[in-house]
Amino acid sequence: MIQFGARTVTAVSLAALVALAAPACSESKLRGDLVGTLHTSLTPEKIVAGAATDVRCFYLKNGKEVAAPATFTVDPTTSTAIAATSLSATAVGTYHVACLDEATGAVDAEGATLTVTAGAPTVVRPVFDENPVAAGVATGVRCVTADAYGNEVAALGTPAGDAPLVFANGQVSSEQAGEFEVRCDVEGNPGLTRQTARLTVL
Q: The whole model's pTM is what?
């Protein structure tokens, strides 16, 4: 018990006053301090186009993992499909995945990297360096295989087409304006769908 003039304040009530006067510590920050730092885990870290990876968010404190009720962000989002705890993508490339705990405001600044590679080839098709082109100007052309999502896999076959198209040294040109079909000549039957492409000559 402490005497203040004519007023008497117990130690318990004084402690309560001090607590009220002190800055309030938000529940979210307190929770973040208690559970440690937020991390992102991908299983697996490398997938083929169209497949999915499991995303796990967790806190790490003193070497121990604590599951986190978190969501996650993906960059870029193009071609991605996001579920509660998984992620899939159809375009070849790398994607940055980072967990976010909305309850605490914690974000995994480092995140994790998902690598997406091309799937099994399903088609063979011509690819131009430039299209359209001016009459008399050549552009590079090659034949490639691609997976079900259009990702290039490997070179296969030889570009071909009818006059007035001229093919030479990996390029194609035409002195005449118009739209011309280019195909890929492939030896044997590799079991791939053969697609054509149109070259526009202006």
A: 0.74
